[in-house]
Amino acid sequence: MEQEEAPGWLYNVLRGATTSWEDWNAYSVQNEAGDYYIRGSLNHFAYGSVAEWMYRYSAGIERDEEYPGFKHFILQPSVGGSLTYVKGSYDSVYGTIVSAWTKTEDGLLYEATVPANTTATLYLPAGSYLEGGAAAEKADGVTYIGMDGGDMIFELQSGVYSFHSI
Q1: What's 126's DSSP letter?
Q2: pTM of the shown model
Q3: Do residues 136 and 142 make contact, with C-beta atoms less than 8 angstroms apart?
Q4: Closest Cα to residue 97, out of 117, 78, 79?
Q5: The pLDDT of residue 32 is above 60
Q6: Dist. CA 24–CA 7, nearest whole Å
Q7: Residue 136 in contact with residue 112, Cβ under 8 Å?
Q8: In angstroms, rounded to a whole number, what is the distance separating the alpha carbons of residues 166 and 161?
């Protein structure tokens, strides 16, 4: 996603792409004079999966197949790489789901919105977190479930949350 040379999604973006191209190098420098050539479609969905990856993995908004329509959903952000901030939202039939994280000097700030009449399972990198001034495990609307590999698992009721690592 962050690769600036072909092939790479950012290669297209840095050359003014507002849609995905059929080929990674569909719009390329042809010679030293800076002439460009176009090969294939410049409006092609094949690489639109980058956006899907950003929602599902970077922001971590994922459906729970046992609960259609996002009645219950999963929040499992992937914090890492050179990204320092991610915010994504999804307009479900119950309301807007928000998942946002920021790397801070102290660690991690994670914010989420769980719409009314829904619940979410949240996976955060193992550590100590405060939510609403209390230890996350004891915060209102939050139930600590346990660990899964290197992640802490929480069940969230409807509400707006702000988890700070300490």
Answers
A1: S
A2: 0.80
A3: yes
A4: 117
A5: no
A6: 5
A7: no
A8: 16
